[in-house]
Amino acid sequence: MNAPLAAAARSAYRTFLAIPTRWMDNDTYGHVNNVTYYSYFDTAVNEHLIRAGRLDIRGGEAIGIVVETACRFHKPLSFPEIIDAGLAVARLGRSSVTYDIALFRHGDDEAAATGRFVHVWVDRTDRRPIDVPARIRVALEALRRPATD
Q1: Is it the case that residue 69 has pLDDT exceeding 50?
Q2: Helices (H), 1-149
Q3: What is the structure's pLDDT at 16?
Q4: pLDDT tens readout for residues 19-47
Q5: From start to end of the chain, where are the E strands?
Q6: CB neighbourhood size of 1 (10 A)
Q7: Residue 50, pLDDT score
Q8: pLDDT attached to residue 3
Q9: For residues 45 and 28, what is the distance between their CA atoms, to the nearest angstrom?
Q10: Pick from 21, 17, 39, 27: which is nearest to 82 by CA?
């Protein structure tokens, strides 16, 4: 088996967002459909950017474009459950950020899914890469893991 995309332990994450599963998230097999996990990732990342980084999603000059996502499934989630989406910054570059994300059943210390989500910050108008905006960078620095060499 391949190495996990992100840490599977709750203690590896800097912040959490509680996300309730919805009836429509379940598939015919009785568990959350795989594509919905990516929606949870997107929700966790953007909630943090809007709340902590004051991202203006409608009128700001800078936007984060998703250039990569990945997910590894460890155990199923289903409706009705509360998911704790853990978020940490694995890498913060000049114009990009790589997030580690894990989804946990509420109160569980072992991840049901682990993944990666990469944003590149671009100018809203011309879509050319720009520096991560200062207030966004501050919000992301708070989630950064210490370097391990």
Answers
A1: yes
A2: 34-51, 134-141
A3: 97
A4: 999 999 999 999 999 999 999 999 999 99
A5: 15-20, 62-73, 82-92, 96-105, 113-123
A6: 4
A7: 95
A8: 52
A9: 28
A10: 21
Residue bearing tokens 């499934």: 73
Q: How far apart are CA 85 and CA 61, in angstroms?
A: 28
Beta strand pairing call for 15-20 and 113-123: unpaired
Residue tagged 């966004």 (tokens): 136
| 37 within 8 A of 102, measured Cβ to Cβ | no
* Sign of the dihedral defined by the CA atoms of residues 120, 125, 127, 132, in that order: negative
> Is the whole model's pTM more than 0.85, yes or no?
yes
- Token digits of residue 84: 């704790």
Cβ contact 89:52 at 8 Å: no
In this predicted model, what pLDDT tens digit does every residue of 77-114 receive, in sequence order?
999 999 999 999 999 999 999 999 999 999 899 999 99
CA angle 103, 20, 35 (to 5 degrees): 55
Distance CA 147, CA 2 (A): 22
What one-letter code names the amino acid at 115?
A: G
